[in-house]
Amino acid sequence: VQAGHPLATMLRSTRAWRLPHAGLGLFSPSFTRVPVAPSSSGGRGGAEPRPLLLSYRLLDGEAALPAVVFLHGLFGSKANFNSIAKALAQQTGRRVLTVDARNHGDSPHSPDMSYEIMSQDLQDLLPQLGLAPCVVVGHSMGGKTAMLLALQRSQPPP
Question: C-alpha distances in angstroms, 75 versus 39, 108, 122, 141, 157?
Fold first, then answer.
């Protein structure tokens, strides 16, 4: 992307999501739990929901640059972002990840469904793919998931 291009300006002004130095677990001193409503599904009788291995598409790019992660809306899937993901990867040289949320597209289905568990799914997936830090872009349900993820894992820039 050329200097002065709106996309270049947007990418420069975004803050990247970074993993805490102390680790990833819920009991990590750097993990902050954000209060959210419990799962509307009733789940498994009070058992803690488990993150799922989500379906995703990763477009290759420069590992030194923060990846861009797209999260779809309620009636969407990772395919909603195919065109923009491809263009962004080609024009910026960044890795671009599109993800199917749980109970959507090709991802597994589960009775557990809440923004907190969708955020946890991503907190497990992103480090497995080596995509931290990253820029998270979400639409509707994906935007709410992205905001919760940012609240739980955001760190100030160095």
Answer: 19, 15, 19, 9, 34
Look at residue 70 and tell me whether its pLDDT is greater than 80. yes
Residue-range definition of the domain harbouring residue 74: 57-154
Domain count, the chain: 1
Backbone angles phi, psi at 59, to 5 degrees: -95, 135
Range with the largest mean pLDDT of 39-43, 49-53, 131-135: 131-135
Q: Per the domain annotation, does 6 fall within a domain?
A: no
C-alpha 117/C-alpha 138 separation (Å) is 16
Q: Which CATH number characterizes residue 119's domain? A: 3.40.50.1820
pTM of the model as a whole: 0.71
Residue count of the chain, please give it: 158
